[in-house]
Amino acid sequence: MSIVRLLSSLAPAALVTLGLLLLMHVLILRNMTEPEESKEFKIPEILMPEREITTEYDTSRPEKPQEPEEPPPELPEPEFDNPDVQMDISFAPQINTGGVQISGIGGFSSDGDYLPIVKVAPKYPARAANRGLEGYCTVEYTVTKTGETRDISVVDCPDSVFASASVKAAEKFKYKPKVIDGEPIEVPGVRNRFTFQMAKDK
């Protein structure tokens, strides 16, 4: 490294150093001056006046309502033409058996064949109604000792869309069971045919 380059680099460094020293001296002198006096503000004291708190209760009685000047009119007693007539009305449950006379259902006092008591109409399938289909379906079942149906099966149903509705309707059938020698017995192989027809417009 030549002496000329060394001297050329030292000169700017010395100038920068002197400038920083002067700047620091000026800043120190400014901080050493006393701060200016500021005006003082005194906050006045706030005093709340003393108050006595009292609780008052309303002990006055409500005014008595005024009585009506005129009493309400008296209603006349109802009069009956025949007060000595007595009526005895009683109601008994009725079972619609389609014109079939039934006797001895509870204790099976007399022998006889099974008779239908309740027959529920099947619900028209929505798929068949939307397509305008009509048809029939025959189911077979066993009438139990209690008059209910079991072992229900479809034996003749050209259109299977009516099968499910027919079976569900047959499950709700009620019968007077068949009685022999005073004892109810089961009757297998009972058939019922359901006919599905759309309502005709008049």
From TrEMBL:
Residues 52-67 have a biased composition (Basic and acidic residues). It is a single-pass membrane protein. Its main location: membrane. It comes from the Bacteria. GO terms for cellular component: membrane. Residues 52-85 are annotated as: Disordered. One of its GO terms (biological process) is transmembrane transport. The chain crosses the membrane at residues 6-29. Residues 109-202 form the TonB C-terminal domain. Keywords: Membrane, Transmembrane, Transmembrane helix. NCBIfam families: tonB_Cterm. This is TonB domain protein.
